[in-house]
Write a structure and sequence with these properties.
transmembrane; MetI-like fold; MetI-like_sf; BP-dep_ABC_trans_perm
């Protein structure tokens, strides 16, 4: 490392190494225990074993019959994927209008997008439930207990965040590209599809992944707005964990295996779009 970089280092090297090791240990030790516990037997985990006396994948096979995990994962994938795609596309088009056009109420909408992030989800649970119940009564539609009802609820919270992410990103895109396309006769839709969307792909991926995680990690709304056949993976995992409380032998190994299985789609999502995440979170547009 150069002398100038060494001089501007915020922490001394020994302290930096120690802090890095501690942070890594805080992450890796719990994850290692979950993995080892999932490969252990329920009796071994209950007795306090950290290192399994014998490794077995039995918990990964039992969990599909012990808990209704397959139905929950399918429901979560469908709802969260639709929320991510719809939120990313609608957020991009909405942000484009807010950034490129001036109209009455534009600043109010932008401020509202920021203000909506401060509203806790627990505060909105009852109003959303009453609204969906009223829609079912007056319109004759079944909203509560359906996947699309949960999708609408998730989109309500994901869309403001996705729109604000895209507003921040689109402000950095040069207008010259769009102006050159307009001189060639391109319409607004063509500009969006061939210029804005490709250049904004990192930010679109970021907003889509955050919308996906919002639905994947949610338990509160999913437990209220679904029924057994539409339960998400988080709700299925919660029901499975609650049902084991007070049992003669809690199936800790199976609970750890179920937690790892539910976390796997998110891990794969991050690994797949890792380079887009870095670009979307650090770049402010095309320089």
């Amino acid at each position: 490392m150069s002398a100038s970089a060494e001089a501007t280092r915020l922490l001394p090297r020994p302290m930096l190494v120690t802090l890095t090791v501690l942070l890594c240990a805080m992450v890796l030790v719990p994850v290692s225990y979950i993995v080892l516990a999932s490969l252990n037997s329920d009796v071994g985990v209950a007795s306090g074993e950290f290192w399994p006396s014998s490794f077995s994948l039995e918990s990964y096979t039992k969990i599909w019959t012990t808990a209704d995990l397959s139905t929950g994962i399918v429901n979560s994938l469908i709802v969260c994927a639709c929320t991510a795609v719809a939120s990313a596309l609608l957020g991009t088009t909405t942000a484009y209008v807010l950034v490129r056009y001036s109209f009455l109420g534009r600043l109010t909408i932008l401020r509202g997008l920021v203000g909506l992030q401060s509203i806790p989800g627990t505060l909105m649970l009852l109003p959303v439930f009453v609204l969906f119940s009223s829609a079912g009564n007056y319109l004759g539609l079944t909203v509560i207990g359906t996947r699309w009802g949960l999708f609408v609820a998730y989109l309500t919270f994901a869309l403001p965040f996705s729109t604000w992410v895209m507003v921040t990103y689109l402000r950095g895109l040069p207008r010259e590209l769009e102006e050159a396309a307009r001189t060639e006769g391109a319409s607004t839709l063509v500009i969006l599809w061939r210029i804005v969307f490709p250049l904004s792909l990192p930010a679109i991926v970021v907003s889509g992944i955050f919308a996906f995680l919002l639905g994947w990690n949610d338990v509160l709304f999913a437990s209220v707005l679904t029924r057994p056949e539409t339960h998400t993976a988080a709700v299925a995992l919660q029901i499975f964990g609650t049902s084991q409380e007070g049992g003669a032998l809690p199936v800790y190994s199976q609970m750890m295996a179920a937690a790892l299985i539910c976390a796997m789609p998110v891990v794969l999502l991050y690994l797949t779009f890792q380079r887009y995440l870095v670009g979307g979170l650090t770049a402010g547009g095309v320089k």
